[in-house]
Design brief:
binds protoporphyrin IX containing FE, mainly alpha, 3 helical TM bundles of succinate and fumarate reductases, about 0% strand, single chain, 2 domains
Length: about 270
């Protein structure tokens, strides 16, 4: 089979399944990708409540243990990859835009596409910068994120103004894309059809966008307020506690027992003979 036959087979597959692909693309923008975006931004905003409150949220996520990686792959990475691939195809004209914009030339239509591309570049950067997946790429060139020392490592990683600016642009783009996408998704699925219903839905999008934008920008402010030394000390105490509870190091009571038992252990050979 030559290249042009491959291409025409792919084109006819897309043509035949265009409706289904577009519906799956639209749905994936809401769940799980949009849902994850909202939970992620609200979790990050917990740093406004202090370093320990943020560490508590991170510990909760990591309590999934060995399940965390498969869950991340199945519910976050693959759906984003699917949504982004179809999104780029729509932008490139490979999948006819059967989307929802009544006036194709309008600014929201253009912004939806532009913010999708910015969000994609930002997500790739964010993974390289802070996620374990990006560790081989960033090497020692950038300080990364350690989930057991969440606030202190995040504060160090987010230390520069350039980084804050980059995150603000990336997060606001993702939030605009999601909030505006909520409105267009309702049109895709026929949830709001009259101009009055569209206007009401528009307000819902604005409120969702404002809450998530505040959460995203709030987390940047919260990270800047972290006292790195105090956060390290608190994380060290929690880490010690975690290791004790997981049996990696003995509990203080076990240690006391050991020291209490030691002299008798020395005595026993004497008494035994
Ligand atoms: C932050 C993660 C993302 C979320 C939460 C998200 C969410 C959404 C939602 C809810 C929609 C509306 C679907 C509809 O109108 O039926 C949408 C549309 C769209 N998304 Fe995303 N998306 C994300 C990332 C991306 C990425 C990385 C791209 C890649 C370029 C992209 C490209 C698009 C495009 C082109 C549209 C409009 C399609 C059209 O013209 O109808 N999105 N997105």
């Amino acid at each position: 089979m030559n290249v042009s036959t491959d291409e025409s087979a792919a084109a006819s597959f897309l043509g035949r399944n265009q409706f289904l692909i577009y519906r799956l693309f639209s749905l994936s923008g809401l769940v799980p990708v949009g849902g994850f975006l909202a939970v992620h931004l609200l979790t990050n905003a917990s740093i406004l409540g202090g370093a320990e409150s943020f560490q508590g949220r991170v510990d909760l996520i990591h309590s999934l243990g060995a399940l965390l990686v498969p869950v991340e792959i199945a519910l976050i990475f693959l759906p984003i990859l699917f949504h982004a691939t179809v999104g780029f195809m729509i932008i490139a004209g490979g999948l006819p835009n059967v989307g929802s914009y009544p006036y194709a030339g309008n600014i929201r239509y253009t912004l939806q596409r532009a913010t999708g591309m910015i969000a994609f570049a930002f997500i790739v950067w964010h993974l390289i910068h802070l996620h374990w997946l990006g560790a081989p790429v960033r090497g020692n060139a950038l300080p990364g994120f350690d989930p057991h020392h969440a606030s202190s490592t995040l504060a160090v990683a987010m230390g520069s103004m350039v980084m804050n600016l980059l995150y603000a642009i990336g997060m606001l783009s993702a939030v605009y894309h999601f909030a505006n996408g909520l409105w267009s998704l309702g049109i895709t699925w026929g949830l709001w059809t009259s101009p009055a219903a569209m206007r009401r839905a528009n307000w819902v999008s604005v409120v969702v966008g404002a809450v998530l934008a505040a959460a995203g920008l709030g987390s940047l402010i919260g990270v800047r307020r972290v006292d790195v030394e105090a956060a390290r000390a608190m994380e060290g105490r929690r880490e010690e506690m975690r290791r004790m509870l997981e049996g990696e190091v003995p509990l203080p009571s076990a240690r006391m027992m050991e020291t209490a038992v030691e002299p008798r252990a020395v005595e026993s050979p004497r008494t035994g003979t």
